[in-house]
């Protein structure tokens, strides 16, 4: 239903007559960036109301659980956590987080690809009515910019074929770029795609870096 040089949006009618909308990168079509259910082929995006509990959002790969974990560790804090998501994709995750966190400044979604941003705005509800802020920038650049303030929940859902990208797997990234932005009692969630050795290497980096 939508296609550019880098991005495609595909609606598929399932056996039970439901329709699944997927955002894929053309160079990696086997890796679905975002998948949501819509009413019909090419139907406008319509968010679920009320939003389901975070515990039921299994399609988000467990990353949405970073917010309940933060609340569990900050039970005496009445304010909402400031959440930054790197790798917004079709924006289903920041949309769900914003519904549960509250006002727009509390959730910031970072996506460097303008074609992905366009698709997310046209077909996944990430337009001006969205309850989160959308920034077109690389994750590294955002974390080092003046726009970035103390982060309570950092979620990295970016990839370069593997997740997280190679630039976000190093100890220098976590020590010099990520760690200075994190607040006390923060929660970090990282989507990891790779073999067991690659997962173990990233876990070792995080153990050495995060207090």
Give structural attributes.
211 residues, single chain, five-stranded parallel sheet, alpha/beta, 9 strands, four-stranded antiparallel sheet
- Distance between the ends: 46 Å
Query: What's the number of helices?
Result: 6
| Biggest sheet strand line-up | 7-6-5-8-9
Mean pLDDT: 87
Number of strands: 9
Shape: globular
Major sheet, described briefly?
Answer: 5 strands, parallel
Element pattern in H and E: EEEEHEHEHEHEHEH
- Going by helix content, strand content and strand pairing, the class is alpha/beta
Parts with pLDDT < 50 across at least 5 consecutive residues: 55-59
Portion of residues in helices?
25-40%
The Cα radius of gyration reads: 17 Å
Strand content: 25-35%
Describe this structure in words.
The protein is of the alpha/beta class and 211 residues long. The chain is 26% helix and 25% strand. It contains six helices and nine strands, in the order E-E-E-E-H-E-H-E-H-E-H-E-H-E-H. It has a five-stranded parallel beta sheet with strand order 7-6-5-8-9, with helices on one face. The chain has a four-stranded antiparallel beta sheet with strand order 1-2-3-4, with helices on one face. Strand 1 and strand 2 form a beta hairpin. The radius of gyration is 17 Å and the shape is globular. The termini are far apart. Residues 55-59 have low confidence and may be disordered.
Quick gist of this model?
This protein has a 5-stranded parallel sheet with strand order 7-6-5-8-9, covered by helices on one side. It has a 4-stranded antiparallel sheet with strand order 1-2-3-4, covered by helices on one side. It contains 6 helices and 9 strands.
